[in-house]
Design brief:
7-stranded parallel beta sheet, Rossmann fold, two-stranded antiparallel sheet, alpha/beta
Length: 537
């Protein structure tokens, strides 16, 4: 699963600039900034609060069900109470499929990453690793050049997979080694500075006062620890980052790690679908809880944060492990959402390979037929996804659009500096990304009645899903196609030059914001509701 979390950002930035920690309090200070208005609040949010105060007061709304396909949702979180889907036709814990939908005791949704014994998958290999394993076993000891000359088209696919897999493993191994060196330096230099100061606990100002001979180890220790103290770097942060690298190499890029055996299904058989369990908050449902809270966190309980939609129910569907999701699970999850009444589906996940794309394609066509809007995160690789692969998507193998009711969302920032308006990690694409929405330093719910800040297009996607749910709840007769049209037409254009994601330093490249998506716009709830009112007449 491609996502940016606090720890992955920590790992990458700590290796280079030590600059992550300067803004850690800023995200709390600007809690709910995404709901503010660009003109009135001087922050490029989506004008949610303005919409409630000026357009929705006294109006009635219909409850909308939004499916969140993710790594699970903490259904008992204090800020999500009353906003979790309940299957009224299912009797809890009786071991019977009361509503005959194929899932036993699915009172709050379904977990496609578990088995009937209550065991659940947490970590999983990436799709590139799974394909590497399949191809490596298949072509072991074979002459690839001879196979290519004989017209074997799979060899080219294998070579593509092989290049990406080996490059990624080399990069993560190298980064881990570099990070371990940083940890070693921290431990050594901390001792030198502590001895010089005569105390173990010291501050940035304490380190600044030290005087050492230039180009000595003590001088290096002072410079290093000044940076550490300036950005409040602590040893506990190292533990989390090292754990991240270990996890990537142990699970994500380990061809011998076979997580799927826990389920025991035939991954290639679409009809082998009697698996999973009803534990929608299994393992560590941090990502899904964050996503759900952007859409549906209680707006009236005076605690935590404010979701976008005030009359919405979240249907949790667990299908995304720590690693890459399986196409079969994604397809069945979308079908579950459609069959059980979801009108909007949020998908804050993605990957570069999709070996069973036909499974997903079949189901998203059903979403079109059933008037369901699908919202997907653009991805966090600062790539042009007009060119780079990002699955799932709304195109078939020939590149033809197979579903209209689909939105792909890039991530924007708070716009303190206009040229940094687009989040540096966000994917973009004039043809394939529809619009942008806030996805930088968003404060959200976390499991166990906690709140955490994170960044990613994973956060931008539920902004759009939440806005769609809000508009739909007050104008329930809108079709999915009309809903999509309203969100796109009402997106607030910001015709400025922005830093192209993926460029920086001496290679900075500025482009028109309008060149990064089909609309060239930012989600705007206020304008969307105004347009919905006009169209409803």
């Amino acid at each position: 699963m491609k996502k940016i979390t606090i720890i992955t950002t920590l790992a990458s930035l700590l290796l280079s600039s030590f600059s992550l920690f300067a803004g850690s309090e800023d995200s709390v200070k600007y809690a709910n900034w995404q709901n503010l208005d660009p003109k009135e609040d001087k922050t490029w949010g989506i004008s949610t609060e303005k919409a409630y105060s000026e357009l929705l007061a006294g109006k009635e709304s219909k409850t909308i069900v939004v499916a969140v396909i993710d790594n699970g949702v903490d259904i008992n979180h204090e800020d999500l109470k009353g906003h979790i889907w309940v299957n009224e036709d299912e009797i809890p814990d009786n071991g019977i499929d009361d509503d005959n939908n194929g899932y036993i005791d699915d009172v709050h949704g379904w977990n496609f990453l578990g088995n009937s014994e209550g065991e659940n998958i947490n970590e999983a290999p990436l799709e590139v690793t799974r394909l590497y394993k399949i191809y490596s076993d298949k072509f072991k000891d074979m002459d690839l050049d001879s196979l290519k000359k004989a017209g074997n088209t799979e060899v080219e696919s294998y070579e593509t997979v092989l290049r990406e897999f080996e490059t990624d493993v080399m990069n993560y191994t190298s980064q881990k080694a570099r990070f371990e060196q940083i940890v070693s330096n921290y431990n050594n230099y901390d001792k030198i500075v502590a001895e010089a100061l005569g105390k173990e606990n010291y501050t940035y100002d304490d380190v600044k006062k030290l005087k050492f001979e230039k180009e000595t180890q003590a001088d290096s220790a002072q410079k290093f620890m000044k940076r550490m103290k300036k950005y409040n770097v602590t040893p506990s942060m190292f533990d989390g980052a090292l754990e991240y690298f270990d996890s990537r190499l142990k699970y994500h890029y380990n061809p011998e790690f076979s997580a799927r055996t826990l389920i025991g299904d035939d991954i290639a058989d679409w009809n082998d679908n009697s698996y999973g369990n009803n534990i929608v908050d299994a393992a560590k449902p941090d990502h899904g809880t964050m996503v759900a809270s952007i859409i549906a966190a209680d707006r009236n309980n005076n605690i935590g944060i404010k979701g976008i939609a005030d009359n919405v129910i979240i249907m949790p569907i667990r299908a995304v492990p720590d690693g890459d999701e399986w196409d079969k699970d994604v397809a069945l999850a979308i079908k579950y959402a459609i069959d059980n009444g979801a009108e909007i589906v949020n998908m804050s996940f993605g990957k570069s390979f999709s070996p069973q794309k036909e499974f997903v394609d079949e189901v998203i066509k059903l979403a079109d037929e059933k008037n369901v809007l699908l919202v997907h995160a653009a991805g966090n690789d600062n790539e042009n996804v007009d060119i780079a692969k990002n699955f799932p998507n709304q195109y078939n193998a020939e590149g033809k659009v197979i579903i209209n009711n689909w939105l792909t969302v890039g991530a924007s920032a708070k716009d303190k500096k206009k040229k940094e308006f687009v989040a540096s990690f966000s994917n973009y694409g004039k043809k394939t990304v529809d619009l942008f929405a806030p996805g930088y330093e968003i404060l959200m719910c976390a499991p166990g009645n906690k709140y955490e800040s994170a960044s990613g297009t994973s956060m931008a996607s539920p902004m759009v899903a939440g806005a769609a749910a809000l508009v739909k709840s007050y104008y329930p007769n809108l079709t999915a196609a009309e809903l999509k049209e309203i969100l796109l037409e009402s997106s607030a254009t910001k015709d400025i030059k922005v830093l192209l994601p993926g460029t920086g330093g001496k290679n900075k490249q500025y482009v028109p914001f309008s060149s990064l998506s089909t609309t060239g716009g930012l989600l705007n709830v206020y304008k969307a509701l105004q347009l919905a009112e006009e169209k409803s007449k």
